[in-house]
Design brief:
This protein has about 240 residues and is mostly helical. Helices cover about 55% and strands about 5% of the residues. It has 10 helices and 3 strands. Strands 1-2-3 form a 3-stranded mixed sheet, with no helix packed on it. Helix 3 crosses helix 4 and helix 3 crosses helix 5. The longest helix has 25 residues. It starts with a helix and ends in a 19-residue tail after the last helix.
């Protein structure tokens, strides 16, 4: 767990993701500079740096697997669950917002990033015919699958238990529910049909530290945010 959490902190703009998540809970999207900057950073991370973002997705999924199977109720677990949940939520919502928002980066960022690269520039010939069409990020997977996802993630569907493909329109809400299911040990949050998360019967002492409550309060409102309001608003310029 410590390895995956450390990678998430190194690979993701955690502070910006938290700013977007906290501010997106309001009924009206604020237009302050810090919120706009945070949105731009998150979108740039997910879309303009896809290899780093996909690697973060792998570590977040592995962290979910570890906590479900090997929870020891350590003091870091609630924070690790919170961060992994937000990272997957941010990547999922950014993936959906990328197409309409691709032109919203500043001219300076566009210049730094250079011209868009075609799939032929990125994908090697050996990746043209993939043996797999999808894999589960929250289940063990070998290095070859991980490397394939990092190279051609647009061709390999990333699935999560009780969520489905993480880039689907309904995925952000389900991801938050999965995180809440681990934090609260309540089946109410996990899955659209109230199915309990794997191993929840063995986690009755998760509230040992008390800090879980603060993370739960931060995540719960994200399950109620309309899709058009999540992360990036098509009507707003960045």
């Amino acid at each position: 767990m410590h390895l995956h959490l450390s990678r998430l902190l190194l690979l993701t703009p955690v502070a910006h993701i938290q700013t977007v998540a906290k501010t997106s809970r309001h009924s009206k999207s604020p237009r302050d500079r810090s919120y706009s900057d945070a949105k731009r950073h998150v979108l740039s991370w997910a879309i303009r740096d896809p290899f780093k973002a996909r690697l973060a997705v792998i570590h977040a999924g592995a962290l979910f697997w570890h906590v479900r199977r090997y929870s020891r109720s350590s003091f870091l677990e609630p924070f690790a669950i919170y961060i992994a949940t937000l990272v997957l939520w941010a990547y999922s919502t950014s993936s959906q917002s990328a197409k309409p928002q691709i032109g919203t980066l500043s001219p300076t960022e566009k210049t730094q990033q250079g011209p868009p690269r075609s799939s032929s520039d990125i994908d090697s010939d050996q990746d043209t015919n993939l043996e797999l069409s999808f894999f589960y990020i929250d289940r063990p997977c070998d290095d070859e699958v991980v490397q394939t996802y990092l190279r051609v993630g647009n061709k390999l569907g990333a699935y999560m238990s009780r969520v489905g493909v993480i880039s689907a329109a309904a995925a952000p809400r389900k991801i938050i529910q999965e995180g809440l299911g681990l934090l609260t040990c309540e089946p109410h949050y996990a899955g659209t049909e109230g199915q309990p998360s794997a191993g929840s019967e063995d986690r009755t002492d998760r509230h040992l530290w008390g800090i879980e409550e603060s993370f739960i309060r931060l995540l719960e409102p994200l399950t109620e945010i309309p899709r058009c309001q999540v992360l990036l608003h098509q009507s707003e310029g960045i």
